[in-house]
Amino acid sequence: MLATQNYIHRLAESLPQTVWTVDSTGRLSYGNSSWHALTAIAEGSPFVESYLAAIHPEDKVLWQNAWNEANASAE
Known about the structure:
There is one protein chain. The chain is mainly α. It has helices at residues 3-13, 33-39, 47-54, 60-73; strands at 20-22, 28-31. Strands 1-2 form a two-stranded antiparallel ribbon. Strand 1 (20-22) and strand 2 (28-31) form a beta hairpin. The longest helix has 14 residues, at 60-73. The chain is globular and about 35 Å long. The model has no long low-confidence stretch (mean pLDDT 89).
C-alpha cells in the first residue's frame, strides 16, 4: 500500500463518519470501520446493488438518480 493511501486509511479510521470509495468497475474498494458497522457491505462487493439494498425504499430513486448523475459527469 502506498504511504499516502496508508495515511488516508488511518485518517478515515479515526473518523466517526462513514468513509468509502468505489473503484471504476463499480465495486467498493475501501470502507472504514464506521462504514462496515453501518452497512456490513464488504470490500469488493458490487457497490450499487449492495448499497441500494441498504437504503430506505422511499430514498432509492433519489439516490439512484444522484449516483447516475455523478457517474455521467465523473464527479
